[in-house]
Amino acid sequence: MKKILMLATAFVLTTAAAWAADLDPTKLVTGDVQENFKDFSKEVGFGLSYFPLAPAEPLGITGFDIGIEVTAVDINENKSYWEDMGDFPGMLPVPKIHVQKGLPFGIDIGAIYSKVPDTNIQLIGGEVKWAVLKGTLATPAVAIRGSYTKLLGVDNLDLQTVGYDASISKGVAMFTPYAGVGQVMINSEPKNLPLGFTLKDEEITETKYFVGVKTKLLLLTVTAEADFAEVPAYSLRVGMGF
In 12, 68, 96, 145, which residue has its Cα 20 to 30 A from 240's Cα atom? Predict the structure, then answer.
């Protein structure tokens, strides 16, 4: 188990450190700058939104899960707004620490923190999930979730997301596949702009679909998830839970 966690940590750090660039909307100079800012905000906002990486079934009052994960967002790196921004890769990696705790009445809470090495990107976020149906040996679990994230560390951009989704899951032996649909509301506000540089706030709503599977072997948990909106995102998490 320890070796798996070490390998996952190394993967996250290596992926994130393979490039170096900062988010900075003042670098947008090509074409329709406002339209490019909107498209840029849509991709960044989705990539920095809350990804569940968890089935619908609740952890239970004694349940706890902590792990490291990485989300790779398949950005449109050939678009002019990314080329203006700098040396961003085709897959934007966002490593995170992710913690979840079970509470009574089928409620789970969770939190994430991310700091992408060699960039100005930091991220915090949280979630509350309620299992409307907890699931049984014969029936699936169904849950609804509300989430929030906030970008930190970027002097010229205030970006926040609010999300909600519904999901369903059904455990089979050590595997629990799940799927869901939701919406992500992105609020992107430029700030501290140079004199003469004008950008308006953008408020964007995206519908997303996601599928995943969680595997648990003793205390080790491994979760893989794919989320689909304007751009797709792929996440892998390795953790310890009970």
Answer: 145
Using alpha carbons, list the distances in angstroms from residue 208 to 47, 69, 107, 164.
12, 20, 23, 10
In the chain, the domains with their CATH numbers are 2-241 (2.40.160.20)
Which tokens is 187 given? 């609020």
Residue 202 CA to residue 12 CA, distance in Å, equals 31
Enumerate residues 6+ apart whose C-beta is below 8 A from 179: 167, 168, 169, 209, 210, 211, 212
**Rounded to whole angstroms, what are the CA distances from 20 to 52, 60, 88, 137, 208?**
27, 41, 7, 48, 28
Tell me whether strands 232-241 and 220-228 are parallel, antiparallel or unpaired: antiparallel
Which residues, 6 or more positions from 107, have their beta carbon under 8 angstroms from its beta carbon? 58, 128, 129, 130, 131
pTM above 0.85, yes or no: yes
- Check: CB of residue 118 under 8 Å from CB of residue 110: no
Is pLDDT above 70 for 3? no
158: exposed, middle or buried (Cβ count in 10 Å: 0-12, 13-18, 19+): middle
E strands, 87-140, in order: 91-102, 107-115, 122-133
- CA 192 – CA 195 distance, rounded (Å): 9
| Statement: residue 66 has pLDDT above 50 | yes
Cα 182 from Cα 165, distance rounded (Å)? 4
